[in-house]
């Protein structure tokens, strides 16, 4: 049965309900918060998430390519992309920020000058990135904005904050302190602003068919991310 939406806020609540069930209460965040992972498994998480993180500019680029060439559509996405580049400051490159986390849990892995670890990429990370890019390749303008906004940025601050808090569990700092600056910076500042940029556009679409389209795009990408965390959990447990 298809849910009925009367307002954009209805759509937000419906997507967040799925996120709460499948990501916040999912196996990965539950195990992380309980301190269940070994140092080797946290190392694996950091190395695999590196691929997902450094491919997010590609996702934003694909979204920019998918929307109409009108300022209200592409400017919010480019603003988000500009944050990935530290707003022009190399010290703020998100790839460099992520490196500080990666080096704190995988100091034995060689990392290139471009902040790419010399380590095989698993199937979970590849599938998550490919799913997002494939969706955007066929998306309408509204679907592309909803995919980035509701499918990612809506809950990115919450999830990244929970990851940062989980990584502070004493079990993960027995050998060395885990640097969670990357996670907390996104949770406290970057992601809430990124979502607001998308929301300011999406909230203008109030017709039932528009709300349904926004929901379908948002929940599809959100559940793809949920699968990423579930599959990543399984890959980590095999370590």
TrEMBL record:
Gene Ontology MF: a single term: oxidoreductase activity
Domain of life: Bacteria
Keywords: Oxidoreductase
SMART domains referenced in this protein's UniProt entry, alphabetically: Haem_oxygenase_2
InterPro entries xrefs: Haem_Oase-like_multi-hlx, PqqC-like
PANTHER family, alphabetized: 4-AMINOBENZOATE SYNTHASE, PQQC-LIKE PROTEIN
Protein name, UniProt field: Pyrroloquinoline quinone (PQQ) biosynthesis protein C
Source organism of this protein record: Tumebacillus flagellatus
